[in-house]
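Predict the structure of dTDP-4-dehydrorhamnose reductase.
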Amino acid sequence: MSPQDEQQSTQFWHKHSIDAVCHMAMGDENWAAWLATRCREQGIPFLFVSTAMVFDSEIDGPYGIFQERNAKEAYGQYKIQCEDAIWKANPDAMIARIGWQIHDETTGNNMLAHLEQQHLDQGVINASEAWFPATSHMMIRPLRFCS
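Done. Here is the predicted structure for dTDP-4-dehydrorhamnose reductase.
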């Protein structure tokens, strides 16, 4: 099923008994808003997994929930677009921004890019004590924390 096919998505939605949605996948902001709208209409919880990359990494975290989302990279900007579309469609939606700290000069803070580059360069993926073993989670609701 393609999330871009609204008829198929609607049929799937009505065929199943859905109690809550946790959107952890990719897809454009229209898909995210579609899911958030269905949840609002049915009065069920909606959680979107976003990223700390909505913040420009030139300033190290920790980031606060009131901090301006200022991503310069495409992925962070994409997540901002999804967050905004979700909040517009469903004011009760929750956003969980997750992130990790493994920044290096060649791959930035993208864990998969870092591991792929390490595999290309060395033929293996090594664990490192230089990584910051951190994952942060920010749960936010727009009406309380965003203008």
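The chain has a mean pLDDT of 81.
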